[in-house]
Amino acid sequence: MSVVTSSPLEVETLRDGVVILRMNRPAQLNAMNVELVDALHAELDRLAGDTTCRVVVLTGAGRGFCSGLDLGGFGNLPGSEDMGTVQSTMLVQTRIATLVQKIRRLPQVFVAAVNGAAAGGGLALVLACDVRIASESAVFAVSFIRVGFSGCDIGTSWMLPRLVGAGRAHELMLTGRRFDADEALRIGLLAEVVAEEELSNHVDTVVDSLLAAPPMSLALTKRGMWLALEMPSLDTAIEMENRQQVLTSATTDQPEAMKAFVERRTPVYRNH
Q1: What is the pTM of this model?
Q2: Helix or strand or coil: residue 31?
Q3: In this structure, are strands 64-66 and 117-119 parallel, antiparallel, or unpaired?
Q4: What is the pLDDT of residues 81-138, one digit of tens each?
Q5: What ranges make up the beta strands (E) of the chain?
Q6: What single string gives the DSSP state of each residue in 139-177?
């Protein structure tokens, strides 16, 4: 295990193929400022070229996951000094929102380990992840509308209705109310809720399940399941699925996965 700490982001290599990104501003409940956003961008860009990493766990230090924008001050993005207010605000907005787009586009499966408050932009990061697990102490809120902005921000208006249904998502965006982990589980936002002291071990178990799949199968499943939410018809989705199955069947990892399943042993993948 190796840990690289570059406040405000801690990067930990948990084991082969698994990286933990821990947002590291605990005194501010890991609120987003320019340094945290830049650190996240830098690590996501690095992961784009890391063919050995298959799973990324996103979590927060201390008692919060991410409380959204730092209302005490985001900071100044380089290059915005001579811009007008609208232009510089758009630069910040785009910089934050692009985090969600990068998470969705990366081949690694992202697991949100929600250890506390996930509000505003923090909730958007949770929504962008592929598997979402929380401790019993986690709380959520869309939040944007409560501080005078639109309730539609950082991809929330697209992702939340697809995860929990339009009716509930619209109510959460319009009111910005807080809701707890039990409600998040009930409406389908979370896959599981566990005791706070069990979160880390349970995430490890989920990671084990993900790593049981061949690398290409895992990456294509992530890509396909999100693309299917944008497809206009069943026929279009099936055409995409057909091609994914042909691609995976042509790898050497596919027969190894099948053989290991039949023999009830751990598969050995080569990403070939």
Answers
A1: 0.94
A2: coil
A3: parallel
A4: 888 889 999 999 999 999 999 999 999 999 999 999 999 999 999 999 999 999 999 9
A5: 2-6, 9-15, 18-23, 55-60, 64-66, 109-114, 117-119, 131-135, 139-141, 179-180, 192-194
A6: EEE--GGGGTS-S--TTHHHHHHHHH-HHHHHHHHHH--
